Hints:
This protein has 16 helices and four strands. Mean pLDDT is 87; it is low at 430-449. It is mainly α and 450 residues long. The longest helix is centred in the C-terminal third of the chain and has 40 residues, at 385-424. Helix content is 65%, strand content 2%. It binds protoporphyrin IX containing FE. Residues 42-45, 47-48, 51, 121, 124-125, 128, 133-134, 138, 141-142, 145-146, 148-149, 152, 222, 225-226, 229, 234-235 line the site of protoporphyrin IX containing FE (HEM).
Amino acid sequence: MSFSNWYNRTLNQIWGFVEDRTAMKKWALRPQPDFTFKPSYWTGSFVAVALAYQVVSGALLLLYYEPSTNSTLTACGQATGSLSSGPAAWCSTYFIIHSVPMGQLLLSSHLYGAYAMIFLMFVHFFRGYYVGVYKSPREFSWMVGTLLMVVTLGMGFTGYLLPYTQISYNATNVGIVLALRLPTVGPLLGPFILADGTAQGLLSRMFDAHVILLPLALAGLFYAHFALFESHGIAPPATSDPLQRRRFNEKEEKQHVPFIPHVLLYTMKWGLLYTGVLFGIAALWPWSLPTYVGNTAAAAVVTEPDWYFLWLFKLVDFAGVTPVIAIAISNVVLVYILFLPFLDRSKRTHPRDRPLWIFLATSLLGFFIVMTVWGGETPGVQITDPTIAYTIGPIFLVNAVVVALFHYRYYRSYQRRLAARRSLFAGSYPRGAPARSSAPAGAAEVKVVD
Ligand code: HEM
């Protein structure tokens, strides 16, 4: 027996043993069609991988981090060999960077990992929006996903304060002022966020939220999100055929592969690549700790949140936009996203059939990108009415024209293809049957519409 035969046989035997003893085949992880082995189908898994890295690196950081505003000499003194002192939260972060073995890599990769997770989550969200995965029967998957998005952004917000730098302190206060100005809800939220009103109270609340409350919410929501995914299976490709949404064709049905090991190994492959790239970036461009709260050098600090909140931060700079209006606008966007499955009721998922919703998605994306760049370029600079109009207006205008042109172009070519197929199968379709009915006998391999 050749070595490779022996090797493969041994591996199969080991795998068979593990599969048998863990009763893995009975696990709820359902097999997946093999046409889904493309990254675009697994964007959510990439977010989950990023989340897993955050959990592990966050747990390691917890070994050293001290959530206290008390002035301390120890950690800073140990690290610098000088007598400089600062708030313990900042000093313990300083200690992680300068004295813990691989500490800088750990902290930088946790921070960049958070950026990556949020970025991947936006990719997962927009991909789902464009290909219509929120449609029946996946409405609840979408709604739970929206809640996951809120909680994930909450993780970013609460984590930002923890190193206790002046810039993060200022930006957190801006966010809190926005929340507290909300009519009715604001005063109720106050005691929960501010605790006893001291800086220590605020830091403790942010810490509790970041390491206990929000992770618990994230775990519960992720469980629900994944359980829903398991029950409905992966969404089929976007199509103009409502019937195609609920079933795979016969050929595809036969080509399902077990979740373990196929999907698991596929995700692990991307997960390893993700971790490698993250480490590479963190090693090449390590994060440097800005100055601490109350330091004399802190007076010159420009208040700025992390990139994913820059759009909201910029919105408050607009003439006439009060904190209440800014919060109202963000809530309208949130409610829109949450209830999207019940607003877009057509059963067709292909973008060419949904010009209005594609226009709204593209406008949302354009608005988010422009506002983020703008917020980063000119944080805190007041913006006048005419500037708002000529910067934001074109986003909606250009999108409307582009989507209308694409719709016109692709809808017509699709109609032509449809007519060609009708004539190809002339006589096979029942008279008067809609174009979206199943393929005629003998044409099982032909997709009717796409
Ligand atoms: C922490 C954030 C999130 C995580 C960890 C996550 C994770 C996942 C995973 C693992 C899947 C299985 C399929 C795949 O890998 O793509 C999935 C599917 C799905 N997610 Fe998410 N998700 C998150 C946020 C969101 C958001 C913000 C939305 C939309 C508002 C969303 C909507 C959906 C939908 C509709 C599906 C089913 C898609 C399909 O069947 O192809 N998710 N998600």
